Every structure is written in C-alpha cells, then in structure tokens.
Amino acid sequence: MSSKGQERAKQNDTPVMQQTHVNGNNHRDQNNNEDDYETRIRKTGCFRENENLQLCYADKHDWR
C-alpha cells in the first residue's frame, strides 16, 4: 500500500457502515462531527437496529 493509502486508512478508522447512509451520502462534516440525523438516532437508543436496517435495505432493497 502506498504511503498516501496508508495515511487514508489511518485517518479513516470508522467502519464504512457508520460513514454512509443507505443512499451512499457521507453524513459526517469536514470536522468529523456527527450530523443531526446520527445524533437523533443515537438518542433513541436504537442506533444498532437502525444501522442493521439500513444495511439490510442496501443489500436487499426491501425494508421488511
């Protein structure tokens, strides 16, 4: 891996599923802070369930 690739890997330790929504948009701003959506979901106590639902929907295109 090139040194630039290693730098990116070090800077980007957050799992991919926490970086993108189902539609693929990055939901972290340039300061690497949580956006409002992620903050609200975390406050519900259902972050893991929501994350699993998003991953399932991305794979199967069916929320059920």
Automatic annotation (TrEMBL):
Q: Where is the composition biased (Polar residues)?
A: 12-25
Cited InterPro entries: Coa4-like (IPR039870)
Its cellular-component GO annotations read:
mitochondrial intermembrane space
Name the GO terms of the biological process aspect: mitochondrial respiratory chain complex IV assembly
Basic and acidic residues bias located where? 1-11
Region entry Disordered, spans: 1-37
Query: What is this protein called in UniProt?
Result: 8246_t:CDS:1
